[in-house]
Amino acid sequence: MTTAQQLVHAYETGLGLPPSSGADVPDPGARLAATLPVWALAAGSVAAVSAAANRVRVAHGLPARPVRLDADRVSAAFSSERLFQRDGGAPAFFAELSGFFPTADGWVRTHANYPHHRDRLLRALELPAASDAAQLTARFSALKGAEIEDAAAAAGAIAARVRTESEWADSPMGRAAAHGPLVAVDIHDAAPWRGERGMSATVERPLTGIRVLDLTRVLAGPVATRTLALLGADVLRIDPPHLPEIDWQFSDNCQGKRSTLLDLRTDLAAFEVLLDEADVLVTGYRPGALAAAGVRAGGRPGLIEASVSAWGTSGPWGGRRGFDSIVQAASGISLLEGTPDRPGVLPAQALDHGSGYLLAAAVMDALLARADDGFGRDIRVSLARTASWLLAAHDRNPGHPAATPPNPACTVTHGELVTAAPAFADYDDYRWPAPPYGSAQPFWVEATDHYHRP
């Protein structure tokens, strides 16, 4: 049976860490029920964060906390979009042109939630800008999945052919995704860090004093940085003013952070000042995108650079865009979780959430390693690598019951907003709700201000 502790063990051995004591993991029942062991991924990734936080506490002479998981809290956090409400209304998770579409030889999955991705998809298919789902369906039915996939990639749009598990495993992309540890970590060659500022850990907030630049969107990166903020870090999220953000996703994933707008094309100097004083840089851009914009992070002594990507940094798809749903489709998960008539999905965006928590754990372990040797680290997770861990499980349950909906009691309310509570049972809520988008100035705050809502 694939267990949460096996995921924790895979994470810790991949980083060369001694094994942590086992977490108290309850029986989830039908929570996150699926053919693949989603509960093991969910509980294991949350337990990995808790174990890493304990390593930070112990390193600062503080007592560790028992790692106890609450099945309702974990499954609610992994299904947070299903609990989110604003003024009593729930969001639309996917836009009209996002989803499964039949093709001439199978199925394809698209992701067009952002307006620019929608526009690129329609241009790639030579359809009018005002086209609807019916027109897209008609166009897809005349094309093969590989044609759609290649045309979308060339246009910067997002679509993937729905593959079988064996097709993915035998492909160069699938082999690259399955290679290496769950979380890849490399030591920087830059000079050792000699900064005076560092953690001022408490049991409740072991990352107090740590500064994190968050250049991520949907969904794994924001989950990681939201977790670091929960544990005390000053997280400053930076968004480009020229690209729109999906309001409800920002509200669901920016709790405890500050938010600013900065155009790296014109304000690179301001960003460089922030980066000079940061401990951690978390990015969700495709490999090489920040360097192309002029950002040079690698030469900064002691900087922890953490990145999340869809497909990893190697292999033929290293430069492609992707999201959780797209990785599920390409890797064979959608066919495993579907019916003979239609591909399906995992009961939550588990690749995103699981990868996000693993990234947060690795950031904490990298900070501890820096405190010992002074060197920064490069940390990399990918949704496809997390998917390969799920697909490697031998125990599967194709006859599983329907997944239990997330427990609405596992929410917090702030005025018009209802969001899922943190996955960690020790924390009732994040330090503050998501601030207004772009409301902060691009400056760091003093450590004594970390606990004040922006």
UniProtKB/TrEMBL annotation:
<dbReference type="Pfam" id="PF02515">
    <property type="entry name" value="CoA_transf_3"/>
</dbReference>
<keyword id="KW-0808">Transferase</keyword>
<dbReference type="InterPro" id="IPR044855">
    <property type="entry name" value="CoA-Trfase_III_dom3_sf"/>
</dbReference>
<protein>
    <submittedName>
        <fullName>CoA transferase family III</fullName>
    </submittedName>
</protein>
<dbReference type="InterPro" id="IPR023606">
    <property type="entry name" value="CoA-Trfase_III_dom_1_sf"/>
</dbReference>
<dbReference type="InterPro" id="IPR050509">
    <property type="entry name" value="CoA-transferase_III"/>
</dbReference>
<dbReference type="InterPro" id="IPR003673">
    <property type="entry name" value="CoA-Trfase_fam_III"/>
</dbReference>
<dbReference type="GO" id="GO:0016740">
    <property type="term" value="F:transferase activity"/>
</dbReference>
